[in-house]
Amino acid sequence: MNAIFSVNQLDLLFKNSSDAVFFMERVNDGYRYIFVNETAIDLINVNPTGKLLEQVVPSHLAKTIIQNYNLTLQNQKQMEYEDYTYDKMEVRKQRTTSIPVFLNEKTYILAITKEVSLGRDLEDKYLFMRSLHSSSFISTLLVSNDMHLLEANPTFIHEFSICMEEAHSQSLFDMKFMDSKSVKTLKKYINRVQNGESIQSKMLYFIDKNNERRCFTASFSSLTSNDETIAVFIMLHEITEFIKQEQALRTASHGLEMFKNAISTVADVIFTDVNGVITDINERVIKNTGYSREEIIGNTHHIFNSGTHNKEFFTNLWNTVKEGNVWRDEVCNRKKNGEIYWVDSTIVPLKNELGKIEQFFTVQYNITSEKQLLSELYKIEHIFRAITDNTNDFIVVTDSFGKIKYASPSYLRKLGYEEVELIGTPYEDLLMPESMGIWQEALNPKEIDLVKELKIELLLHKKDNSPIWTEGSYTMSLDLSQHEISEIVMVSREITERKELEDKLTYLAYHDSLTQLGNRRKLYKDFPMIQNEAILSDTSIAIFYLDGDNFKQVNDLHGHDVGDEFLKQFGKSLVKSVRQEDLVVRLGGDEFLIVFTGLSNSETERVIQIEQIMNRIKENLDIGWRIRGVHFSPTVSIGISIYPQHSECLDDLIDLADQALYQAKQSSQYQYCISDV
């Protein structure tokens, strides 16, 4: 293999790694597997060596992987991305590090994938609760917004012989189990749920593995992320036998009795007269309610009333059936022991040969488990809302353009805004200029990571324009139909006091505590930038090493307080003598150092510039200052070294300037000496 690594080298490095390792060659617009380790083979359940990525991975997953690999090559640096996949009724997250490799005019990708723990946000809890049905007789489906089957529970997979690997690569409506007459209806229901509706007890047909047409009642719920649907969850309750028996009933001479017997095994059956008095029931009613036949017969449906529904609900019910129409809805009933249960109830008026209603026929299917699931979801959502509304953390949801869709009350309390001033407003309107670039990078990531929480520090301004620092993390939500960012969720907390303390500590670390001038640490921190600027501008730098003449006498004659004030004033005089871009540093005691930038590379011109600098220093020191009635106008000796003529090393330049200072001190006052190295 003509690559930067041989197969043997890769095998030695990654054979026993717990992370999945893939080494890929760029081929036209795709990628071919060159090497994979054993963990990678276990992850994708096949040895893909020699094959193209699209031949191994489902098309919708391959598209995302190729996009991330292309970004890695485009940016020519290591990148990370995470994906969020469904696998056998489990939600899994993986983080992949992709590394570009360029050799011999060929391009490669080294990808290392590890599984990461799953965040338990609202959507994950929804999926977790859905998994309660994984072993149930109820079939469940999870359908993406682009109409692909993401998941089906074992019951449905077995009965309809589904291969989930194949399912991921084709539309739901092209799959073998779809009944052609139900396609249009199913599309309509899914679209309605995507638009915010909740749909219950709709009839659908599917073709099973034996090519038999089977009938289900379907309930649809949306899987939401921040009030937007990202998938549709479908629960199916089979009624095939009931339908078959109902069809047989139509040809039977004793239809009513046969109909009652046919559905007795799958539903509660109740007959009432035209006044609503119960005249007959099947055994399931007795079993499911706890009442005896004697307690129910002769009573009305009021015996099961839970008090959940208002008077108008029942008025509408009776008005519908008495007009000869079928009524259907969900009803909350109460058992004899007080336990609440929900049913999908249908009431059919039965007429005689003259068309007059003689009795009412009621069929009820228990849907308590489905209602409990939805109830738990509502509770979770309510708890989430209670937490966000009462926390001191800043919680905000924006669209992909950064416009605020939701802001927690902490934004109102701490920043002083009204809710109407925030909703629909670009989040950047809350930012100080220093944080604009950071926020724009968050809105326009080089790669989209749907799982990883990214850290961010932002400087905001309150309504009164006072600053407030926040630190937090943000995650991105993906529009499954468009495969692009739909929302950004950010949770932050205030760190203003911490930032102020950090700024103070940083200042103290790089400044002399007496004179407030830069110290030796600041000199070494700033010099690489000064040096780089000199290279770019093709100029020289002068290092002035200053030592005060007879400064010790100030302490001896006037005391340390005056001595300290003397050094402060001396530092101010030096700052006054230089430009803003020059650096004045106190090395310690009465030793100071000045870095002058932008000097000429011509020695003749540079000597003139140095003379001008020396004159400014001398003039300001001659003016001097007064402390406690005493006038001071000190003198100094100065040693000078030049970058890059004398050296490119800062330590060497300081040593050379110090040596030149020693020579200057051998001369008279106000003397300076340039290193002769």
UniProtKB/TrEMBL annotation:
<feature type="domain" description="PAC">
    <location>
        <begin position="327"/>
        <end position="379"/>
    </location>
</feature>
<feature type="domain" description="PAS">
    <location>
        <begin position="269"/>
        <end position="300"/>
    </location>
</feature>
<feature type="domain" description="PAC">
    <location>
        <begin position="454"/>
        <end position="507"/>
    </location>
</feature>
<dbReference type="InterPro" id="IPR000160">
    <property type="entry name" value="GGDEF_dom"/>
</dbReference>
<dbReference type="Pfam" id="PF00990">
    <property type="entry name" value="GGDEF"/>
</dbReference>
<feature type="domain" description="GGDEF">
    <location>
        <begin position="539"/>
        <end position="677"/>
    </location>
</feature>
<protein>
    <submittedName>
        <fullName>Diguanylate cyclase</fullName>
    </submittedName>
</protein>
<dbReference type="InterPro" id="IPR035965">
    <property type="entry name" value="PAS-like_dom_sf"/>
</dbReference>
<dbReference type="Pfam" id="PF13188">
    <property type="entry name" value="PAS_8"/>
</dbReference>
<dbReference type="Pfam" id="PF13426">
    <property type="entry name" value="PAS_9"/>
</dbReference>
<dbReference type="InterPro" id="IPR001610">
    <property type="entry name" value="PAC"/>
</dbReference>
<dbReference type="InterPro" id="IPR000014">
    <property type="entry name" value="PAS"/>
</dbReference>
<dbReference type="InterPro" id="IPR000700">
    <property type="entry name" value="PAS-assoc_C"/>
</dbReference>
<dbReference type="InterPro" id="IPR052155">
    <property type="entry name" value="Biofilm_reg_signaling"/>
</dbReference>
<dbReference type="InterPro" id="IPR043128">
    <property type="entry name" value="Rev_trsase/Diguanyl_cyclase"/>
</dbReference>
<feature type="domain" description="PAS">
    <location>
        <begin position="380"/>
        <end position="444"/>
    </location>
</feature>
<dbReference type="InterPro" id="IPR029787">
    <property type="entry name" value="Nucleotide_cyclase"/>
</dbReference>
